[in-house]
Amino acid sequence: MTLAINVRGLNKSFGDKHVVQDVSLQVEEGKICGFLGPNGSGKTTTLRMLCGLLTPDSGAGTALGLDIITQANLIKRRAGYMTQKFSLYEDLTIEENLQFSARIHSLDRRKERVDQALERLGLIERRGQLAGSLSGGWKQRLALATATLHEPKLLLLDEPTAGVDPKARRTFWDEIHALSAEGLTVLVSTHYMDEAERCHEIAYISYGRLIARGTAQQVIESTHLITFNGEGPGIDRLSVEIGKLPGVDMAAPFGQSLHVSGVDRPALEAALAPYRRAPFKWTEVEPSLEDVFIRLMETSEDNFK
Amino acid sequence: MNGFSATRVLAVMIKEFKQLTRDRLTYAMMLAIPVVQLLLFGYAINSEPRHLPTALLVQEDSVFARSITAALKNSAYFDLVAQARTPAELDEMVRRGEVQFAITIPGDFTRRVARGDQAQILVDVDATDPSATGAAVAALAALPQQALANDLKGALAARGQAAPPFEVIVHRRYNPEAITAYNIVPGLLGIILSMTLVMMTALSVTREAERGTMESLLATPVEPIEVMAGKLAPYVFVGLIQTAIILLLARFLFDVPMMGGWLGLSLGVALFIVGSLALGFLMSTVARTQLQAMQMSMFYILPSILLSGFMFPFRGMPAWAQAIGEVVPVTHFLRVVRGALLKGQGIEDMWRELLALTAFVCVVTALAMARYRRTLD
Ligand SMILES: Nc1ncnc2c1ncn2[C@@H]1O[C@H](COP(=O)(O)OP(=O)(O)OP(=O)(O)O)[C@@H](O)[C@H]1O
Ligand SMILES: [Mg+2]
Question: Which terminus of chain A, N or C, has fewer Cβ atoms within 10 Å?
């Protein structure tokens, strides 16, 4: 087993804000690792440190076997990075942006590669259109095509599918899986639960600390969360009321049903007892990733305070 | 390390060039500014500089010669900086621009004064910058008469009361008709190039930072020197076009004489364009926003206009201003352009200025490379 990413004890502060704290992360070659966490938790900052855009205050490690501090330039040749904010040239056309990327990586068969990328994107006819005039989702797709043009061995994607429609997202993930089958390693940050579930493993970061790690199943189990699903007319309206009860960590409406979770089974049962009556129907369910993440967010917030 | 890659330079260059041509307004401005400025600065601002460097060639040892020398030393207009031994040496001093005035007291001066026979004092003026010399020339005409008033008493007293016993022959060189445009127009070349080029590159890096494209650029293997070379190249081209426009207008609209010195001029122009662009690049590594970059380039333009000898004659400025002026690259560029166009100076006459411009390019490039941030920290 080779590790495509292997970093230990990464720290980064901006001023007196300690944004990334002791983050250690190992990702096996060929794996897709989902990088999750609330806004401002340090995902972008961590990705930037991995590809040499930020220098960690302390900590060390390798990406693709290369030292992230001293060999950043070699990493840049072999890794692809897609920024969270669109960062291609809006005043260049789609084709020109791809050409720029091809040249800057000193690729051979540039025309062929650019044409292929355009074809895969389905943008052959619109190749002369300015990148700035593309819709949000298309910009993301172009950015991904640009980041993968030089056939990187490691792909760092920062919310690549934000604003992308479901069909394009499906295509995107199919492509990511195809690439990973060929040995590409992907670290992808996202806020979408369905995407997290499509990853081989996930890393959850909160307030700069990596607090959960493993497959989706492992992460769910590690929180020891117990979830009841309640159904019945008007049950979703009870979420606030139930949420305040002792033993209930959270109550979240899902359409017509309500997810009530907690870690203390007797307390949770006791809290729900008054509601175990017609027309409501309760069943214990496996907590969803979302339940788990919201739980993680809330507990780490408490730790932080 | 990545080494240096021409392909990556080309990548940046092509990108910059396309962005430039797509930004029609900027493109048009870059070409319109030279024309507009040139037309606006039709006339110069006059001032009355003093302490102009003067060389003296005395071909006879006489009472008259000594009192004229003394009078020159006392005059606020002239600084006697050199004594030439031969006419050729004197001539060389003017051509090199070491002195602005060359005064000759001929060997038969006393004899002619005594005989009342058309005695002459010869004055050669470097009139490239007419506003610098006008007042001094007028002062010069009166000077010897006052100086000699005492000596003319005695044996020559009778003549002293009558018409002046000698005349001052002023010979304006390089710009005999004292046309200010001859001086202003070549000067404008330096000012226009500074104004437009420094600003263009100063904006180009900060723009990448502001638009967020810097993040992508930094994530590629491109080296700082490659970014710099690629970003400068299209604007070198723009600078050359501007130079061509200005020189053509100077020739055909203002009839500025062009005496030659093309090799030195070309070298000077090339160095100055690259230096100005590199300076803009340096500014953009310091400035955080495009607005800051703009303000910095304005800050640079002021001394370039005021202290370079463009607006006010260099030798008319107080010593401290001259000291600052010597550090301003435009000062040296102006000397190259005026020297080449108006005096036909060759490289052997202007190597000091060319050396100064070379130093400018090297220092600014080194600083820019030291300042360029490879990360977003
Ligand atoms: N250049 C910077 N200077 C100062 N603070 C910064 C800088 N970059 C990020 N931060 C701060 O660091 C924290 C983490 O930011 P980061 O962008 O890594 O979060 P994130 O997990 O990517 O969030 P999001 O999901 O919203 O993209 C935030 O509080 C942010 O304000
Ligand atoms: Mg982010």
Answer: C
